[in-house]
Structure formats: structure tokens, C-alpha cells
Amino acid sequence: MNLDELTARLHAIRDQNDWRQFHSPKNLAMAASVEMAELVEIFQWLSEDQSRQLPAEKLAHAGQEVGDIVLYLLLLCAELGLDMDAVVRAKLADSERRFT
Amino acid sequence: MNLDELTARLHAIRDQNDWRQFHSPKNLAMAASVEMAELVEIFQWLSEDQSRQLPAEKLAHAGQEVGDIVLYLLLLCAELGLDMDAVVRAKLADSERRFT
Amino acid sequence: MNLDELTARLHAIRDQNDWRQFHSPKNLAMAASVEMAELVEIFQWLSEDQSRQLPAEKLAHAGQEVGDIVLYLLLLCAELGLDMDAVVRAKLADSERRFT
Amino acid sequence: MNLDELTARLHAIRDQNDWRQFHSPKNLAMAASVEMAELVEIFQWLSEDQSRQLPAEKLAHAGQEVGDIVLYLLLLCAELGLDMDAVVRAKLADSERRFT
């Protein structure tokens, strides 16, 4: 996943719509959390087994919500000056130390 | 970000701990949403301006939470058979169509 | 707020629709969290000042989401055998001890 | 549940700690959502059946989180000028119309 390219394209959309004023880290975290709940909503009344066998329409919906979340997290990382790849690798290395 | 490599390392941790039984998409979405709230918590009492100038400790904490969220989303995508890069690109292309 | 009356009416709706099978505490907590995000969504792009002066339509929407959350929490308390009034009072007394 | 009494006691704690400045509806909704996620966290790795039979410690924890959520919602309702009992009753009446 080419994070620099994705971020540049997100910033182009943002700037063309004059949205930067709304993109405080506080607001972007809220927006990401709202998209996350839309992902959770897909699963809320399903059994765990059903969640492993989503029908095509729900699966496509889940993909859209994952996309929304990752895009907001990329915008958030850019505002905070965080490198998503680096923070993900740091957390993964930490889990490897603790759990393997 | 090398999604295949990250996912393989996540699966190694998961399998070494016999966690697959817990990793239904339903549970992974819940877990991701809990990490998301830990990200939101960093910002809840800050003004938008303060959220743009996080002190180093809070910034590091934010990075850890972003890491946790992305890792759970990678596990979720693997369970659902979704390609994170593809769903992110599809959503971005959709936003480009709608907003530019 | 008459919690027993509200809970009895919720259970009547639930039973008439054969929804009890879906009302595990796990699912009810998820559902409440989704409604909570719908409340958060109202505020995500507003400044704090704007959030203090909601237009009538957004205010009505906020009320609906608060209603949804409280109703799911009542269903959850009933499933868990918790008395909402008692747990709220216990938490408030705890805050009084710690912060006053 | 005596909402007026509970709200008055919450406001006493708030004012004694000079917290009103932080209590914008935006922030209170965020704070409530964080407490909600702490409730969800209790259930994230449990099966639905396990969630119906919480051990005493987890049940007490769930009660504390429900308490936190309701208290933040009461503060939010007070800031917005919403009557929690009225909005809950309106939503319940709406569900009765739609589902019974």
C-alpha cells in the first residue's frame, strides 16, 4: 500500500473542497470512530459463524467501511506527522516481543 | 506498507498463541473499535488547536493506537478475504469522483 | 425515569418480534456502541462552540440517538441482571468521593 | 431514576473542579463514546453465551461502565437542554409504532 500516494490524493480532495479547516486531529479521530461503528454495525446481530460467511453485499459494505477508516487514519497520521507504516511496524514488533 | 508481510507476521503471533478461535470478523471488528476509542480518548478533552500540537508522549500514544487499529483491520481483512489496498483504493477513487 | 416500566415495554416489543435470540449482552453492547457513534457523528465536524448551539433539527436528532442508547442500555442491564439506577448511583458516589 | 437529582450532583462535582469549560456537547459525546467502548471491551473476546454468564468481577465492571455512560449522557442532555426521560419515551413510542 503506497501511503504517500494515497495521502497526496486525499490532500488533493481536501484542498479542492477547502476541508482542511475541519481536519483537526480531534475531528479526524472522531470521524474515523464513526466509520468504525459503521463497520461494527454490519456484524452486530450476526453470530460469529455468520460473520465468517458474509453474503457478497455485506462483504462489499465491510470493504467500504474499512476503506473509510484507513483513509481517515491516513489523514490523521499526516496531521500528526506520524508515519503509518512506522507506527504499525513498531506495534507489531512490540506484539512479537510480548507474545512469541 | 507491505500488507502481505504484516499479515503473515500477525498470523504467526495468532497461531503461536492459538488465538484463531477468537478471531471471528465480528470479534475483530469489536476489538478494532475498542482500540479506536483509545485513540479518541487522547483527544476528548483537548481543544482542536491542542489536538494539532500534541506533546511527545501523547503523540507516541496516538501512534500506538493507530498501529493497533491497522493491525486489527489487517486481521479482519484476512478473515474476510478482503485486500486492504484494493478496498482503500476503491473508496479513494469513489471520493475523487464525488468530490473533485 | 421509570426504568421498570420502560424495560417492560422494551421486552414487549422484543418478544412480539422474537428478538430475544439476538439480545445477548455482547450484541446489545455492540448495538449501543453503534447508536453512540451516530450521536458522535452529529458533532464530528462542528466546533465546540457550534456544538453548544445546535440547530433544531440536529438537536432533535441528538435526542433520538440518546434515546436509542439508553434503551439499549436498559435491555443490556435487564439481560445482565443489573439495576441501572443502582449502578449509576454507585458510579456517581464514587466520583463524589474522588473529586469533591 | 431521579434525573434531576443525579444531574444536580454531577453539576456540583463539575463546578467544584472547574470542568464546565471542557463540557461542550462535542466533548461529552466523545467521552461517552469512550466509556461505551470500555463496556464493549468486556465482551469482545467472549462468545454470546459467555456474555450471558459474566463472572462477578466482569459484571461489576460492566455496571461501572454503564454508570459512566449514563452519567455522561445526563451531562450531555443538560448542556443540550434535552430531557432524557422525554427523549427516551419518544424513541420507545416510535419503536412501539414501528414494531408492534
From TrEMBL, chains A, B, C, D:
Alphabetized PANTHER family for the sequence: DCTP PYROPHOSPHATASE 1 (PTHR46523)
GO BP term, example: nucleoside triphosphate catabolic process
Name of the protein: NTP pyrophosphohydrolase MazG putative catalytic core domain-containing protein
One function term, GO molecular function aspect: nucleoside triphosphate diphosphatase activity
Pfam families linked: MazG-like
Top-rank taxon: Bacteria
